[in-house]
Each structure stands twice: as C-alpha cells, then as structure tokens.
Amino acid sequence: MAEFPDRDTCLDLLGRMALIRRFEEEAGRQYQRAKAGGFLHLAIGHEATIVGTVAAMRDDDYLIGTYRTHGHALARGTPAEQVMAELFGRENGTSGGRGGSMHIADVERRFMGGYGIVGGNLPLALGFALAIQYRGEDHVTVCMIGDGATNTGNFGEAMNMAALWKLPVVFLVENNLYGMGTAIERHSANTDLSRKAEGYGIEGERIDGMNVLEVRDRVSAHIGIARQQGPTLVEAFTYRYRGHSAADPENYRDKKEVKEWQEKDPVETFADRCREEGSLTDEEIAGVRDEADRTVKAAVEFADSSPEPALETLYDELYVVSETMGWYAVDERSPEPHRGEFGEQAPEHAKQLAERGAAYAEEEPEAAEIRPGVRG
Amino acid sequence: MSDRGESGTVPVIRFREALRDAMAEEMRRDDRVFVMGEDIAVFQGSFKVTEGLLDEFGEQRVRDTPISENTIVGTGVGAAIAGLRPIVEIMTVNFALLALDQIVNHAAAIPYMFNGQMRVPMVIRMPGGGGHQLGPTHSHSFEALFLQVPGLLVACPSTPADGKALLKAAVRDDNPVVFIEHESLYGMRDEVPEGDRIQRFGEAAIRREGSDVTIVGILKMAHVAQEAADRLQTEHGISAEVIDPRTLRPLDLDTILDSVKKTSRAVIVEEGWPHGGVGANLSALIAEQGFDYLDAPIQRVTGADVPMPYSRRMEQAAIPHAENVIEAVLAATEGGLPREGTGGPR
Fold first, then answer.
1. How much is the pTM?
2. What digits encode the pLDDT tens for the residues B41-73?
3. Among all residues of B, which ones are annotated catalytic?
4. Which of A113, A128, A154 has its CB closest to that of B70?
5. pLDDT in tens, A278-292
6. Which of residues 60-99 of A touch B (CB under 8 A)?
7. Complete DSSP assignment for A262-283
8. 8 Å CB contact of A131 and B77
9. What is the value of ipTM here, to two decimals?
C-alpha cells in the first residue's frame, strides 16, 4: 500500500465518510417521523467502500449505483440539501421529488443515478461505457451493485457483453453479506463473488471494503485497467449496520455479528489511523464531525422548507416535446387536448384528478403501521 | 432503381429495404446513430432488414450482440443517456418480454424519475405478428403492452413509405420509441419517395374515404381493413372510411373522431388479443369522447384470445381476415346488438 496520505486528503476522505454517516443517521430519524416516505435503504457501514471508490475516480468518469445511493451522491459532491429534499419528496430534490430515496441522480456530477431494480443498472453502465468507447474518450464507468445482484441474469449478460466488447467499466460489488434479508450463504452458490469474473475471462479481486485507503488504491488500479483494456470485477467486503431497508426488523441475523463488524467501523478506524499517523489532530477530527452535523442539520431545514412539487408539473419531463417532430398530445388528459366534447375540459380534468389524489394522500394515516415489509 | 411506380418516377421497393434505407440515411446524416442486435451485422438480420449496413458502416456502428435481450436494450438506454442515438433490434416482439425491465422500468421511466436530467433518445425495433406458423413464442402482437407505458412512443407502420418516414422520425426523436414491424409486410413492395421524408408522429392516414362506417386498422390489419372496405363497397354498397393511426402513442384521436362524427359507426381491427388491447383502448376513447356521434355500438375485431397456434388452419383462424371485418361492419351498420368481434373460429 502507498504511504499514508497527507492532511488535506485525510480531511477530504474523513469528511466525506463522516457526512454520509451523519446524513444516513438523520435520514433514518426523518423516516421514523414520516418526513421521508417509501423505502429507505441506509448505507451506514458502507462509507469506506463508497468514498474510497469515488476518490479513485475522475470527475468526468461515470458512476452508477443501486437503490442505496444517498452516500454515492454525497461522495460525488451533490449538496446534502438536495439529497434530503429528494427524500422528503420536494421540488428542490435531486429528482424534483419524482424519484425518492431509491432514485437520486446528479448528472452534472456524472452520478448517473440510483436504480430500484436489483441488477437493472448493469446494462445501463455498459451503455455509458459503450458511448465512451464509441467516441474514443478515456473515461470509465464504475457500476456499483450489491451482492444480491450477482445472482441476476443481468449480471451474467452484462459481464459477458462488457468482456466481449472490452468496455471501460469496473463492476464494483458492495458485498454487505445480505441480499435483502437473506445471507450470502443462502443466496449465492459461490460466495467468493470475485471469482464470478473468471467465467467471463476478466480479472476479479476481493478487497477490504471497510478500509477507505485500500478501496481507493485498489479501485484506482482497476480503473487503470478499465481505461486501458476493459472490464474488471471488484468485490468489496463491507457491512450494513442497519436493516436492508428502514422497515426491516432484522430477525435474520445475530446482534453479535453486527457488533463484531462495528469494531471495524470504517469511519472510526480511519479517524484513529489519521491520528496515529499524525495526519490529523483530535481538534481537526472533531471539526470534521461538527461540519457534518451542521451540513446535515441545514439539509433537513432546507428540505423541510422546500416546496412540494406543483401539481401542474405532474406531466412534465415525461416526454421531450420536439419542435421538429411536431407531435404534441400524448395523454388524452394532458394539457393539449384532442377535440371532442370531453377533450376541451382535459387540462382542467387532469388538474382535478391530480388534486383529488393529493387530497387523498393527506388523509392517509401516517407512519409505522402502513410501512411495507422488508422487500424494496 | 429501374423499378418505378405508377407515376413512373417514384421507386418501388420492399418494406424491409425502406427500413434499411431509413437507417442507412440516418447513419450517414448523424454519426451518433448506430445499430445493435442479435444477428444483425454479419448475418445481416434474421429478416434481412439490416442487409448491407455492416459493409457500409463497419463493426463499430453495426454491432452483433450476444443473445441477451435485457442487456441489449439496457446498453442502448445507457448509450442514449450518454449521448448516442441507438437503434436496437429485438429479433421478434416475443423476445422483447425478456427486455421488459429495461424498456418499462428504465427507458420509459428514467427521463421522468430523474426529472428530465437524463433523456433516452433511442429506437427499439421489433418485428411481430402471426401468419408464418411460428407458434406461440414467435408470433404475437404486443402493441398494447407498450402502448400502455407512459414514457414510450409506439409506432406501427403499415406501408413501406410510412415505415421509412416514421423510422427516420423515430431516430430523430428524443424519446424512447418502440417501433413495431409486421413480419408479413417485410416483402411488401410499394412506392417509397426518395429523399429525406419525415412522417411526424401522431398523424393518422386516411387510407380510403367513406361515409357509412369508420374502420381503424394498424400494421397488417390496415390492409385487411382496406380489403374489407373494397368488398363492402362492391358486395354490400357500404361506403367505409379506413384510418391507419400509424402511431399509437401519440394517437391522432382527432382524425378518428372526425371520421366517426361523419360516419356514426366505428369498427377497430387489430391482430392482438381482445382484453386490454389496442381496440379496447380506442373503443373506450371513442365512447368517452365521441359517444354522441355513435349510432351503433363500436365493434372490435381482434386476434383470437389464445396463444398463437402452430397449425396453419388454426393459425389462420386465430388471425382476423377481411371476412371478420365485413361481418363486424354489417353488425355495426345494421345497428346490431353488441357482439364479440374476435377473428377466431366461431
């Protein structure tokens, strides 16, 4: 391993990890208070894998993730306010309140999104990589997936096609040992996921996903291979301290196991090492945490005061209404009505339907008892 | 081209050549456009639609893929997001079911769920339809399946000229387009004007003017509707107007409603299944928005409500023919009782 990084690098890595940790804790709280809805998948424990990977990437490389990607956006530099506002379903969220926790994206920073279908992001990553190769650029795509996704058909299809076409992509498995609520020994015939690369003739490596420096250095090496020759597979061993989603009662695993992994906490161990190596002082480490606190507090305030998306935007962004092609009316209820006696009231009708739906949502009982099960 | 149409100036070519020309012209015009699919390059396409493209454009832009439908479409989605203009071929529409995740959960949803941050300008071409004894896994008509999905556009051309002009429009559109071709039409020869002709989406064609009944048909059924209309005129003295919507989303409901207003009767012909089908949708829209124009119940003629059988006789019995359309029109024009209008055996 390379020598221990300098003060600024340490501050940067620790700062990003601390922000993710703090953000996720707060997101969990806001979910309990029903400020955030739907499913909420927290990445507490994954910080080193996320931050180490992003630190190995250039700003113009593409990153794509799963449904557990608040941290990926934050690590990539998306303001915490926008991520929190998306969890709150607000207009100023990264996806204007249309995506929610599972569908955060920040294309400007080449964070190409979180996706709610397990393994569904794999082919998209190939597409980004194909576009890079097609144009003769030297970017790479890093496609992060969970251990569960390595059992999907998409995994086999995508690994084969990426290897066949030598696409510049690094498949990075965040192996947190559970596919939803099922332990890896119970969901994968081969539990050494790095070896799944062998069948496609590409390199696979298992790394310590709790060590941000190891992740950064090894992913950096794999990105180098991807830029030059083609795809590789990295399996980062990590762990999530919380359930699969916030609705998960976690009766499938032992509290003792969680404790054992918490002793290897990626944020704490890195802070300790920074102190031991003399790169950071106690005050600086405390400063990093205070900064994360302040940022997350401000994010909650911002999200809370951000407006709900306007109902008249219900149909916005569904289609590009192209001037050259000239077509305009897509949905018979949408703002450009067809003729016919009912058609003329179409815009008003669409608005009424939207308003009625919204009114119904407000009457619904809040919080815990209506939360769905583990799946999501 | 020595073969010219009636006018003597417009070339007559086959449907598959018209589609190929559309792709080739778009690829010459815009180097972001590329074609990808199973057996499309070296083999030149299982229906020979991509014939000659590899020779002209090379392997970078005409790409053979593994048999991995979901990943083929998903790779197209990613490439479109990253700035290319993919044309993806799915070998037959039945195989598109393997790619439904990428078509519905990704191509259609991504622009909306990321609030317009990403666009998916791609074309997913897929041939379908029965008539070739390919049995229940290679013969279906899934227009309705894609029509149902907000975020997709759906094109169903019935003539070579429309095929070319609509495909060119689809390539230039910034939305994901499901482009459905009928296998029985690939060999059809017709006049296709040269030059850069674009058919806008959402403009129906009136194939035949008439005053007694409106018949709406798509893909091969647009031709079945015309045959029925001709025979209705000579055999029954009924004047039928035939409309081919050409695109199902966006749908040119105006032209259909205007016609129904004139004729007071509507018959819809499709090869797909009756439940939740194209005709079901169209019938609902006409009833909702044109009820006062109607003098008789709307009639639907559809494929039989079964997986497509292999046996030639059974298959033909499951696909609508002009006879079925004529029967439905007679029922509508006699103000008959509502009846089930399947093309199956009765």
1. 0.90
2. 999 999 999 999 999 999 999 999 999 999 999
3. 69, 138
4. A154
5. 999 999 999 999 999
6. 62, 94-99
7. HTT-HHHHHHHHHHHTTSS-HH
8. no
9. 0.89
